[in-house]
Amino acid sequence: MAEQSDLREVDFRLARCRSSVPQARAALRAKLGEWRAGQSIAEDGELVLSELVTNAVRVPVPGDRMVGVRIECRGRGEFLRLEVSDAGAGRPEVQRPGELDKSGRGLLLVKALAHRWGVDERRAGIGKTVWAELLAPGAHPEPAEAQIAAVSVQPGQCVRVWGGWHTVRAVRSERYASGGLAVVIVLSDGGPALRLHAAEPLTVRTAAPTGPVISP
């Protein structure tokens, strides 16, 4: 688990079986209790994670591939991001079940409880990641994310690398020996600088505040 002053993260894997759903709920409950998150976002988070994991364990996948879960929490639960990854093809869609249908309401619940949700392709492997972001009452939304070329990154933005968010302190360009353009991105936390091809995509957002983001 990686932990910063106001950001907490945990990753774990689950077997593709029905018992993984309560296991995921229990893990989330334990972590949010440890991080002292509010009861409202904890309850909603459990419901959303249950639906995402339920869908993931039902997806037909090759071999014995597992389900990946990632939890990201800011402050004491002002912002909660849940990610569930599986190796299955396709993209889940919100269904419109009839009154007598016994299933198909999972993503309707996710859509209703989450501030926003979506589906991304997995960069390191086959399959997809379904994610949902929840806000505590009175909290402002997190800055919007975007994928841009490395050459377009600006100081003050946050880039997602090494499984977490890092604020950009400086950006400079230089030439490869072959003549191509490289971008060097210096991070504020003192970690190693990134040296990337100018066109390589990065996920960025504007720098997040250092404390909890709560409405006045």
Model description:
The chain is α+β, with helices and mostly antiparallel strands and 216 residues long. It has 2 domains: 7-135, Histidine kinase-like ATPase, C-terminal domain (Heat Shock Protein 90); 146-206, Roll (SH3 type barrels). The chain contains 3 helices and 11 strands; from the N terminus they run E-H-H-E-E-H-E-E-E-E-E-E-E-E. The chain has a 6-stranded antiparallel β-sheet, with no helix packed on it. It has a 5-stranded antiparallel β-sheet with strand order 1-2-3-5-4, with helices on one face. Helix 2 (39-58) runs antiparallel to helix 3. It is globular. The two termini are 32 Å apart. Mean pLDDT is 82; it is low at 1-5 and 207-216.
Beta-strand portion reads 35-45%
Could you spell the SSE succession in H and E letters?
Answer: EHHEEHEEEEEEEE
- Largest sheet, if any? 6 strands, antiparallel
Radius of gyration: 19 Å
Short key terms for the protein model shown above:
five-stranded antiparallel β-sheet, SH3 type barrels, Heat Shock Protein 90, alpha+beta, 3 helices, six-stranded antiparallel β-sheet, 2 domains, 216 residues, 20% helix, disordered C terminus
